[in-house]
Amino acid sequence: MAQQEDQLKYVISHAKEYGYIFPSSDIYDGLSATYDYGQNGVLLKNNIKEYWWKSMIQLHENIVGIDAAIFMHPTTWKASGHIDAFNDPMIDNKDSKKRYRADVLVEDHIAKIEAKIEKEITKAAKRFGDEFDAEMFKKTNPRVQRYLIEINEISSRLAKSLTDNDLADVKLLIEELGIADPVSGSKNWTDVRQFNLMFGTQLGSVAEQSQTLYLRPETAQGIFVNFLNVQRTGRMKVPFGIAQIGKAFRNEIVARQFIFRMREFEQMEMQFFVTPGTELEAYEAWKQKRMQWHLNLGLGEANYRFHNHEKLAHYANAAADIEFNFPFGFKELEGIHSRTDFDLRQHEQHSGKKLQYFDPEQQKNYIPYVIETSIGLDRMFLAVFSSALKNEELEDGSERVVLKIPAALAPIKAAILPLIKKDGLPELAHQILNDLKFDFNIEFDEKDSIGKRYRRHDAIGTPFCITIDHDSLENQTVTVRDRDSMSQERISIENLRSYLSKRVSLNALLKNLE
Q1: To the nearest 5 percent, what fractions of the chain are helix, strand and coil?
Q2: Does residue 500 sit in helix, strand or coil?
Q3: Please, are residues 276 and 286 in contact by the beta-carbon 8 Å criterion?
Q4: Fewer beta carbons within 10 angstroms: which end of the chain, N or C?
């Protein structure tokens, strides 16, 4: 756990030092669980958005995008179940006065057992060497099997208690497991109670005439209430999807782990409307599509896994998470849910408007079923950033810090580096910059030695450094250095655009999805 905490602190420190993420209101000592994206962070964030948006909209003829308002009619949240059921189980420690999500305390306890399993596997792998089979070891080792049974029993009991809203048993489970307050070590807990996560505000300038509104806790409902608007104006035929990227707000009991869990965050969601009876087939197909989208970035297949939900949300008949190995362990990155017809049916009942689709093949009206894919943009940012940050020992014994962000997502695609600040080199460097800036985000950098500039751009995550030297004036060639391999090659200036296009283009990444 200490190693994980150190790794996360290192990620946070690097993100601030190199202009990716700053604590919000930093000059006022910040605001809890609120962050600002810096000059490099906003570029990486926008590139992730573009990768998701284009993969959804441009690569699918039957998916379109919208941008719904953050404020929605308050009945929206009554219909969706958020007013009555959008709660987290909250527990306080009487001694430390700290507040926690009760289910997260149990999940953290499970994570400690999982760490014990990994420790056993690591020890065995060292003992048996190359012939070691981790999966077989997990199935046959008595101690690991006891751990796995313990995890299953705890998970099943927690899921049942939450489903039954048996909060007394959730507290009893915490007590039986001997879970202590992470801050004080105290086991003196209050009862578990439900805590609604929506932020409320008032619409109107006169108090007596004001109306209670909520900051949306998810973007999905903006899609559902626009189902007919999009279907009719776009002449969409089932199956079809509606995608959206937007801010959402949740009054989290404990917002923590950097940008993983915040009270203001951004979601990338797509609701795919299908014929009833075909939803589970579509659900499985979208699970595979979304995993392919992630693996296409090359962050490492071992960093991903599916987790099927034991406790289903009130609207779902199937649900799974794509979990990612963050600095603090495997946690949810994206959810894929089969939402049935719950949302459209609820909105039909509460609005009095008919939200049905006329199927010309079946010659009948029905409420479509929905498959949802929902990914947190901030979590995706953290997944990319944390997995890309490396400390490498070089052949000469020195070390470098390098941010190996996939080139198509990197904020700065290339840095233009005149070898010295005279002899016409800066002028030629600016000519190259002015030629390339319409196609790529390029940075000009002439401060410090060329070696220090290479190291700086390694740490920023710039895929290529283009050095202009005296030979460039003579033969119109430049040296291009690759961030990951540190190899260098001589390229003619006129070929720079095509050279970079092949290596940093988002199009090349998208073509791999086809």
Answers
A1: 45, 25, 30
A2: helix
A3: no
A4: C
Number of domains in the chain: 3
Q: Residue positions in the annotated binding site for substrate?
A: 101, 218, 265-269, 372-376
The token pair that represents 233 in the structure block: 């104006």
CA distances from 498 to 297, 328, 439, 493 (A): 21, 40, 10, 10
Single out the residue in 336, 356, 390 at which a domain terminates. Answer: 390
Same domain, yes or no: 247 and 286 = yes
**Final residue in a domain of this structure, among 142, 161, 196:** 196
- Using 50, 70 and 90 to split pLDDT, how confident is the model at 82? confident
Task: Check residue 66 and report its DSSP letter.
Answer: -
Residue 492, SS3 per DSSP: strand
The better pLDDT of the pair 137, 58 is held by: 58
pTM for this model (two decimals): 0.84
Distance CA 193, CA 251 (A): 15
Q: How far is CA 312 from CA 160, 217, 315, 411, 486, in A?
A: 10, 18, 8, 38, 48
Q: What is the 3-state secondary structure (H, E, C) of 268-324?
A: EEEEEEECCCCHHHHHHHHHHHHHHHHHCCCCCHHHEEEEECCCCCCCCCEEEEEEE
List residues forming the annotated binding site. 101, 218, 250-252, 260-269, 332-333, 372-379
- Residue 238 CA, distance from chain mean position: 28
Q: Residue 284: exposed, middle, or buried by beta-carbon count in 10 A (0-12, 13-18, 19+)? A: middle
Nearest CA to 285 among 274, 276, 296? 274
Tell me the HSE value of 227 on the side-chain side, using a 13 A CA sphere. Answer: 27
Q: What pLDDT, in 10s, does the model give residues 425-440?
A: 999 999 999 999 999 9
- Does 326 map to a domain? yes
Given a contact cutoff of 8 angstroms between Cβ atoms, the answer to whether 440 and 460 are in contact is: no
Residue 21 within any structural domain of the chain: no
**23: in domain:** no
Give the integer Cα–Cα distance in Å for 105 and 89.
11
* Cis, bond preceding 239 (omega within 30 deg of 0): yes
Examine residue 205 and state whether it is found in any structural domain, yes or no.
no
Q: Write down the pLDDT at residue 183.
A: 85
Which residue carries 């090359």 as its tokens? 298
Domain boundaries, position 115: 87-196
Give the span between the Cα atoms of 415 and 467, in whole angstroms.
Answer: 8
Residues contacting 102, CB < 8 A, separation 6+? 89, 90, 91, 167, 170, 171, 174, 192
Annotated binding-site positions for ATP: 250-252, 260-265, 332-333, 376-379
- Rounded CA-CA distance 168/99 in Å is 17
